[in-house]
Amino acid sequence: REPPSETAPQSTNGSMQYLVDTDDSDDQEGQIAERESHIGAGLCLTVRGVCCASPDMWFCFLGLLTLAVVAFVVPMNIMVPNSSKPSKTVWSDEKRRFSEWQFAVKILSEAEYENRSNQIAKLITSSGLTDADVISKRGSAQNRAFIYVTFMTPEVDLWDIEEEEYLLQLYGLTTLYYSTGGFDIWDNPTSDTILGDHPWSNSFAWLITPDYCDSWFGVICDEEEIRPVVKSLMLDGNILEGTLPQELHEKAFPNLEYISLSNNTLRGTVPSSIGTFYHLKLLSLRENQLTGTLPTELEELL
Description:
Layout: E1 8-12, E2 15-19, H1 25-53, H2 57-78, H3 88-100, H4 110-127, H5 132-135, H6 141-152, H7 161-179, H8 191-194, H9 212-215, E3 219-222, E4 229-234, E5 241-242, E6 258-260, E7 265-268, E8 282-284, E9 289-290
Parallel strand pairs: 4-6, 5-7, 6-8, 7-9
Antiparallel strand pairs: 1-2, 3-4
Helix pairs in contact: 1-2, 4-6, 6-7
């Protein structure tokens, strides 16, 4: 089953907006120009009417001042292409997907989602984990992980540093999941999709709940911390396929010590981000289809 279409956040004046992708830029520019010309013509006629109808210069001046305010405020809304505003249809589709799953948390309203997505995107990009244009790419592992984190953590305090670390770890794990063949389990929540002969042959509890330290298969955490942190990723022989993302990084997993992803079908090169794990004690990537050389950053860990 094909996953439902998703939209992506894009950068607007330094903030992230959850927007609809579109390729009709020329048509939009034409529509904006047409709307501007109509507004301009209407204002000109109105100015003539106000000043001609009243011989009182002060009344004419006040009328012109009011029109000037309208001329400034109205285009601020009209000049924005409709396709650049949050898509209620796409938001509704995502809301329905998450709300149908039995473990779904509080479902955000459209306004709440827009505000929350901006905050989550700012957290991810400011940490240096992922660039805004990568998160914005609809259907990418990073975009899908971003949507998941936004919907599944509506009550997590973004102003608490420990909660920020939790969100970055959740984002990093979910990006790894989507990058290596994982699928949206709520699209087909049956025993055959949880355990079977397909990518991620054992994806037990992944994505069902955002509490990755509680039961996500292969994720081992240090429970002594106030907010448990990921210490080990043990996913050997789990039919992971695809590439390792740059989000497998110390900025997402500052306490990671063991990475064991051997006997899978991972391809591509080993990302340089692997060399950022200063506490790393074990890295096992044997029996995969990886190419190229090991990143030089790993030499600092030896």
